Amino acid sequence: MAAMSELGNGALSELTVLDLSHYVAGAYCGKLLAAFGAEVIKVEAPGVGDGARQVGPFPDKNPDPEASALYLYMNTGKKGLTLDLTSEGGAAILKELVAQADVLIENFAPGVMESMGLDYATLSAINPRLVMASISNFGQSGPYRDYRADTMVEMALSGQMYVNGDPEREPLSSTGYQPSYQSALYAYSGIMAALIARDRDNKGQYLDVSIQEAMASEHQFTLNGFTASGKIRMRSGNRYGSVHPTTILPCKADDNGKPGLVSLGISDPTQYVLFLQLLDMSELLDDPRFSNPQMCAVNYRAFDALISTWFMDHTAEEIVNALQDNRIPAAFVNEVSDVLDDPQYEFRGFWKEIDHPVAGSHRYAGLPYHLTEAPPVYERANLLGEHTDEVLGEKLGYDSDRLGQLRESDVI
Amino acid sequence: MAATAKGPLDGVRVLDLSRVWAGPHCTRILADLGAEVIHISGRRLVGRREVTRETAVILGTYPDNDPGERHWNRNVLNNDMGRNKLDITLELNTERGVELFKRLVEISDIVIENYSPRVMPNLGINYPVLKAINPTIIYCSMPGYGPEGPFQHFVSYGTTIDPHSGLASRMGYPGEDPHMSGNAYPDPASGMFATGAIMTALFSRYRTGKGQYISMAQAESGTALTGEASLGYQLSGEVPPRIGNGHVRKAPHGAYPCKGDDKWVAISVGTEAQWTNFQDAIGAPGWAADERYLTLEGRLQHQTELDGHVTDWTRSMDAYDAMRLLQEVGIAAGVVVNADELMNDEHLNQRGFFWKFDHPEAGVQTHAGQPIRLSETPARHYRPAPTLGQHHPYVLGELLGLSDNEITDLEETGIIGYTPLVRE
């Protein structure tokens, strides 16, 4: 952010980042760098910009490329530059910017940067200290390199999807962007590691992040069971397979009539005994079907039927409080609308009110951490090409004539 | 790739008090990148004292379902998280244990823990105390809901963070309840945020000379990862419904059953060109010409019938054949791989994704490698996971300068050891 850079007190305010991202994977990584004060220049194609601008949701469901929730969230704190990288002039300008940059992030399909003459070999020759991060569906090499994918296909090929859902029904993906988000987090840490190494070795390097690998590395139970004993982890429905009750259960509706749901995370015997005491159902411990959380998992249907009366007599709030008072894991089951009213998030100041000239003022999810000496800054997403003149003027010394010519030839 | 290159975090020492998955996932990355991660455990927290063969079969995480003589050194879950790390035991509820921990803090860079927020102050080793000992220390605390606020003492796991954060609300069969991840996804996801925060603090410290305190909430991680949806709700006024494997702008879009038992292929058809290619690829069946399927709007509207037709085709296909056939014509498709297929995935294996570790007590095991692939300072497998207390001689002897007699004395007084203790 300009303001922070001038003050020089963002943890990353010395860094200039060229963010050639679209949609989520590269963009979320750039957003995190911007949150710590890096000057992140979002490079978009003139006219249309990042495809995320077309995705939404939009205010009142009216599509507007400056008011897509996906774009607004992924690009907080960035400067907007338009540049046609497929034109010779555009690629040349990018190279000039690379000479002054610390980090470049891109998530084009493999081979696209090369086709524009902007591969790592070329760019590192211009700036040997450049850290370049490429995020792609399957990485820059291997037989699936050019395969296409979206969230569901990444969930499928990383093994995450197979273990989600009911054993009797189709495996479930999620409707969010989790694979892309995770790759962005790996890229973020990889970039930070490369910058730390650059301090020591005085040279940049190339970072190849595969979305499939990011998700495949977050698989403790699946892979470990297989390597140890050949066990294939199965779907176990809306519960945790080996211990019960770790699940989501219906309970009494709240005062507003909202159907009740509550989450339980009971896995160890101590919690299990306490839980049954609380429900005044300790006699179940004498029933071999329910003697411990493992047996309970085998007989979960019968168990859920037995405890349902108590649950339907209590609201989620009553249940969470009663269980947590006894140090038994229980939680609310929130929709994305409910989390906005969460008292814990409120206390920690998680939501950030950010105003935007087109979309208006809204509450954005912040970062899940506070750093005492490096507080994140939260500023709105850039408009398409909002800082084109400023970036090219200040960094490359382009005057208004030059900018006019570039604009006329659709380079910017 | 320079095989002798130093890891990017070479020379960084981490004291890892974290347990289970979220914290260990973070420190595993630091270790893969060359940091010296010293995992410190109290022996009451190591796990159960006895593991019978029967329990081992249920858990499936002991090599060949044999817990062996020292089951705590054979659990592959721990050995995966522990790779590249060092291990010592230390009873922090003793004066001597705390004194030794503080001496380690003097010579370390990072402390990470995921205890409930009351634990570290009770032990007398919370951040203000440690900062006084070493002002450059970076201290990351990552309980479920954060170390402050009305839910600070809530007991949580990844499985309860999942529905609280809103993540589970983004998964579910059409019209049904939010659905939990089958893999406790919020755990590694939180670990990723912690890793980024620690690296940022480290980068900053190299410039300012100052350490800092990182206060992290695992629940907020999940909510940050659905931030586009909570913002979208504010813009559109609509809570996104659960739509199974459907997609608001693509059809067909789903997991379809294939030949064999529980075999599925995920197919995603977005553009008109892909829809045309899809029809050609599956042999231009008559139903595809139905006018209801001419436009995306029509296909979305008649999804159930459309999915039925697609299923008729996939049922006759091997899942891999279906994937390759569709990918050849530019359609996003992927086998819904199980553990076996994932570990034998030709693409991941050609990229050398999996790492094999030969552990002295657990034998050769295959683990996911490190997705952070750096060209000049690559992540590496330095050593298999340590056995419990394996590095007492190095950490207590070499780093802290304790004599052999002093180390023996610690062992005799139960402050360190090599076997778990029964939880009281």
Report on this model:
With 412 residues, chain A is α/β, with parallel strands linked by helices. Chain A is 38% helix and 14% strand. Chain A folds into two domains: 279 residues, Crotonobetainyl-coa:carnitine coa-transferase, domain 1 (Rossmann fold); 88 residues, formyl-coa transferase, domain 3, CATH 3.30.1540. In chain A, strands 3-2-1-4-5-6 form a six-stranded parallel β-sheet. Chain A has a three-stranded antiparallel β-sheet with strand order 7-8-9. A two-stranded antiparallel ribbon of chain A has the order 10-11. In chain A, a hairpin with a 7-residue loop joins strand 10 and strand 11. The N terminus of chain A is likely disordered. In chain B, strand 7 and strand 8 form a beta hairpin. Chain B folds into two domains: 271 residues, Rossmann fold, CATH 3.40.50.10540; 91 residues, formyl-coa transferase, domain 3. In chain B, helix 7 packs across helix 9. Chain B is built from 18 helices and twelve strands. Chain B has 424 residues and is an alpha/beta fold. Chains A and B meet through helix 3, helix 7, helix 8, strand 6 and helix 9 of A and helix 2, helix 3, helix 7, helix 8 and strand 6 of B. Strand 12 of chain A pairs antiparallel with strand 6 of chain B.
